[in-house]
Structure formats: C-alpha cells, structure tokens
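Now for today's protein:

——
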Amino acid sequence: MKQYISLKKFSQNFLVDYNVIQKIIRFINPKLNQKLVEIGPGLAALTQPICNIIDKLIVIEIDKNLLIRLKKYSFYSKLIVFCEDALKFNYFKLLSQKNELIRIFGNLPYNISTPLILSLFKKNKIIKDMNFMLQKEVAERLIAAPGNKSYCRLSIIAQYYCSIKKILYVPSKCFKPRPKVDSVFVNLIPYTKYSPYFTFDINVLSDITNIAFRKRRKMLRNSLGKIFSEKILIELGIDLKLRPENISISKYCKLSNYIVKNNINLKHILFK
C-alpha cells in the first residue's frame, strides 16, 4: 500500500484497473500532432500508455512526491512537467505560434473537480476537448437535464459552454485506495464556434442561476420575485408554477439577457 500513499490534502485515488485504463486510452485516441495535457498523472496509469503513442505529453502535478516517482520511468523524457496547482495554472502559456487547441484529460481529485472544470470553461477557446474521471455525483450534475434531481447551476453553466457525454461508468473497486463513491469518465467538447445558447453576459447567467437555486424547492416566481414581476416572467415564456430545476438553459439565458438589456443590478440580492 505504500506506493499509493500521497499527500492526503490532495485527495487522490489512483486508477489501477487495466481494462478501464485501456478503454479510456482508446476513447482519448491520442495522436502525434496533438497537444495533450494531463492533470494529475498520479501513478502514471494513463501517462505511460499515452507516452507509448505520442512523443510529448504535458503534465501538471502539484504533488512533488509523485513527480519524483515519475522520474524513475523510462518515458519521463517525453514529459513536459509543471509542478503547479492546476486551478491556478496559466493554460494560455501552452499555446504555440500555431495556436493549436489543447486536449486536457485526467483522473481529477474529488475535492477540486468542480472548481477546476468551472475555471477551464473560461479558457474554452483554446481547448479542443476535455476527458475527465469524476465522482459519479459530479458527472450526473454535469449532464443532468431540466426536471432531473441532479439538475443545478453546474448543469446549466457546463452545458452552456460544452457538449457533454458520459463515456464510462467506473466502480470504486477500480481505484487504490478505494474511495467510498463510484466514478464516471466524461467527455466535454467546448462550443468554440457555434453554441446552442446565447447570453450577453455569462456572469449574469451565473448570478441569476445562483439566486434561483438558493431556493430550488420554491416556484421561480418566488425565488426570482424580487427581480422579475409575474408579468415579465410570462412574457419571457416562464411557467409561473415551475421551480428552478424545471427551467431550461435557453430560458435561463432569456432571463439573464433581460437583466442585461434592462441594466438591472443584482448585487443587493447576491450579497444579501
């Protein structure tokens, strides 16, 4: 078990199931001319087989103990290593003069997965795709549709930025140390050119969903009653009897656009 011990604060569970690893590699399908970035190489479960296919792999790993371990592998010469926090890392510095889009993948620690994905959405113009192993609950939130119990702010923001697919269910027994929850491997492809949704300001969309989901069990006319009159909600096509979890992303975009066009200040509600 000693080889699985890392710094506890990083909450790492290492993928060790060979069949799952092979399925993930086949799906990622790395190519020689692509710029691939792995977040958290860990014990090299994905790193090594990908290095067998391509000449260079960028890895971001905050745990110095794991980086020392990586140096013992023969494929280490193929790695471009950044010992940094993936949440604070400047991904734009990876762009070359060709400005090719980067591909990001990794088995993400549970404690940083949601904030990391949200931060990467803001860099979607330089990302070709993202392929992540996530806690099952987080994956379900990412892909949830209106009316689903997992549908939330994360669902709306994620699906605004990306097309998202669940690729592979991965039970907890496939990891060491074994976590208490199962995982799901997901694929996210940013809308770099055409998005099915439109909002003038993504920050306003984030704010309005924040306010709405604070009271997710209340009807929207109550949770957003201080911003929109019932008349305006009806004009925007919102059923007054629906709750926040029943409203589509398109309609949340309509709400946010109304706020922008009418120069409504949300600060007094956000910081209440």
